[in-house]
Design goal:
single chain, about 260 residues, alpha/beta, two-stranded antiparallel sheet, 6 helices
Length: about 260
């Protein structure tokens, strides 16, 4: 079983900054981590590998520093990795990103399953995985909670509002992951040693034969008109500790009247 896991390096939300001219996130010099949904996807891939054997390849697109999360993936148990990095890809929206990642999947070659995190912490769109499936012309199942493999068929339990729905599909397919069966594992000492010695291969837009007119900021159809940091207002709150429910309601009513939220 050959599994490709798409990972994304996202900025720590506490240190993230915005470029008000290009309307994009400033990623250089910012502490970055592996997107948490992608970590769940990686764990799901490793669980399948543990049960059925095969190969797990970690894939990401980003700045050269994004190789850090690929090394982390190898330390956790991934067998191989590939970094797509090129200044021409800077500022790509979800469509341009999905085109580049789909091209990278085709560059990697044979696969049975592609796993992506449900969404990323920075963009929060949940669009890249499904768009990749469209570019590759393969089935997709989104928001998986569990992934099983029986009789050459993947069985996916996916979130469906307040319930769950079970779907089945044969390879190849793409699945976006909400959570794995188990908590993501820690890297082993042996895995860390392997990752330290691993040279992460890097491919460019040219290597992937991508048309530069449809990637990057200029090739992205999504245009951000304005970005801003919302002002945080301090709200004064008060807790009513009256044990008698009727008295508590009367006290709340009086306070709402005083605040001119309601009238008598």
């Amino acid at each position: 079983m050959n599994i490709i896991v798409c990972l994304k390096q996202v900025p720590d939300i506490e240190t993230v900054k915005l470029d008000h001219e290009t309307h994009t996130l400033i990623r250089s010099g910012v502490e970055n981590i592996m997107n948490q949904f992608d970590r769940q996807a990686l764990e799901a891939a490793l669980e399948l590998k543990d049960k059925f054997g095969g190969k797990v390849t970690a894939l990401t697109m980003g700045l050269p520093q994004a190789a850090d999360i690929l090394k982390e993936a190898i330390a956790m148990g991934a067998d191989d990795a590939l970094l797509v990095s090129d200044p021409a890809l800077g500022g790509s929206d979800t469509l341009a990103t999905s085109m580049a990642l789909a091209a990278a999947v085709q560059h990697i070659g044979d696969y049975d399953l592609i796993l992506c995190g449900k969404q990323s912490a920075d963009g929060d769109t949940a669009q890249v995985g499904p768009e990749m499936a469209e570019h590759l012309s393969i089935p997709q199942i989104t928001g998986s909670l569990t992934i099983k493999y029986e009789n050459d068929t993947f069985i996916i339990e996916r979130e469906n509002e307040s319930t769950a729905r079970t779907l089945s599909c044969q390879a190849p397919l793409l699945v976006t992951v909400t959570k794995s069966d188990k908590e993501p594992r820690f890297a082993s000492i042996k895995g860390k040693m392997k990752a330290r010695k691993t040279e992460i291969p890097v491919v460019s837009a040219t290597d992937l034969k991508l048309n530069t007119a449809i990637i990057g900021l200029t090739g992205s159809p999504t245009k951000v008109i304005k970005v801003f940091t919302p002002e945080v207002s301090v709200v004064q709150s008060e807790i009513i500790n009256e044990e008698d429910a009727d008295k508590a309601v009367d006290m709340l009513f009086e306070k709402l009247v005083q605040a001119q939220i309601i009238t008598r």
